[in-house]
Recover the amino acids of this structure.
């Protein structure tokens, strides 16, 4: 009897030991998986698909966000530092410091750089369109000033910047109109667009040159953008790609709209990149449709917002992977929910994959779970 009790005791001890071993082994494997997962960045998950990038400022690169940028992204875009106003505030004065800081950070961390943007109707200094007497400049003088600006900026970063958004947002939002009625257009006509690409190509023949715009999934605007870039390509203008800004929301665009845009523009033999990606937690087309009213920083990131945003990010990255042969880059517009350009448009927004503590959100894991 005692021997039987001893046998049963030994058997139960062995069973417990086996179960404990299996359990701890499983936990170790799970911990190893989590550790491996946490050390991989977005760029690592997508290294066989397309370049993952992010828009940055020099200020952010002096904070703890810099580590996240280096870990998760393979490309950076200056959010504002290379726009004409900040970099060329007066005719005979260039301000290089901020842009140089971003390029130096990229070199240090072996990252690529997208230049943004050479010609735009916004953040452009008034001196560009004004003559010595305060009158509006002639077409000839404006094109010469544009050439000087493009040549100077592109030459400075030649070999450091692989792609440029050459012309930004030239198409009007009104379906009854074609080009936006800007000073560029009023003085130079449509010709300023082709000239910008020609000047940029002459300054750096190896750079990949993009036309960049928002609401590229809106059928009417998409058709007008297609008309523009097809016309440029047919005329032999050195345009190499189309940038879909990607300022989207929890209910826009649809899968069908997004796929149609990628297929249409790539059918021209042009590269397609998503250049300014964020997914607003508020409904509506966000590109160009800025929110008015008092800024509310007290709004919270609700469970409903989280789920809707997660589903939208999952869908768009499913599409991106499907068209990996046509899509050569995806760039997020800002690093984390700590700061987004959408915050200044009336309500605190939460449009990115990292939260205000720089931690991955649930949407992040949906994006990399494939």
């Amino acid at each position: 009897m005692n021997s039987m009790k001893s046998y049963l005791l030994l058997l139960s001890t062995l069973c417990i030991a086996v179960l404990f071993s299996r359990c701890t082994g499983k936990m170790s494997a799970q911990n190893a998986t989590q550790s491996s997962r946490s050390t991989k960045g977005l760029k690592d998950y997508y290294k066989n698909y397309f370049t993952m990038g992010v828009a940055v400022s020099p200020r952010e690169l002096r904070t703890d966000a810099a580590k996240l940028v280096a870990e998760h992204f393979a490309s950076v875009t200056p959010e504002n530092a290379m726009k004409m106003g900040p970099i060329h505030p007066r005719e005979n004065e260039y301000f290089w410091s901020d842009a140089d800081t971003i390029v130096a950070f990229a070199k240090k961390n072996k990252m690529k750089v997208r230049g943004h943007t050479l010609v735009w109707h916004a953040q452009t200094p008034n001196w560009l369109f004004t003559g010595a007497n305060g009158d509006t400049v002639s077409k000839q003088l404006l094109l010469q000033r544009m050439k000087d600006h493009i040549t100077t900026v592109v030459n400075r970063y030649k070999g450091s910047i692989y792609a440029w958004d050459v012309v930004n947002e030239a198409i009007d939002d009104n379906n009854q109109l074609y080009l936006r009625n800007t000073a560029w257009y009023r003085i130079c006509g449509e010709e300023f667009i082709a000239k910008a690409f020609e000047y940029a190509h002459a300054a750096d023949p190896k750079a990949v040159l993009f036309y960049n715009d928002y609401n590229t999934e809106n059928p009417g605007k998409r058709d007008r953008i297609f008309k523009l870039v097809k016309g440029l390509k047919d005329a032999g203008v050195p345009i190499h790609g189309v940038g879909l800004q990607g300022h989207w929301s929890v209910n826009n665009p649809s899968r069908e709209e997004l796929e149609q845009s990628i297929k249409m523009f790539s059918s021209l033999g042009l590269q397609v990149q998503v250049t300014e990606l964020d997914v607003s937690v508020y409904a509506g087309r966000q590109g160009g449709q800025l929110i008015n009213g008092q800024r509310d920083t007290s709004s919270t990131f609700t469970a409903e917002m989280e789920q809707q945003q997660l589903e939208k990010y999952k869908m768009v990255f499913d599409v991106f992977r499907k068209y990996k042969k046509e899509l050569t880059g995806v760039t997020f517009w800002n690093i984390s929910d700590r700061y987004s350009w959408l915050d200044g448009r009336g309500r605190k927004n939460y449009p990115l994959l990292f939260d205000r503590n720089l931690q991955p959100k649930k949407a992040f894991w949906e994006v990399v779970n494939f």
Notes: The longest helix spans residues 2-38. Residues 41-368 form a domain with the TIM Barrel fold (CATH 3.20.20.80). Confidence is low (pLDDT under 50) at residues 14-21, 23-37, 289-295. DSSP finds twelve helices and nine strands in the chain.
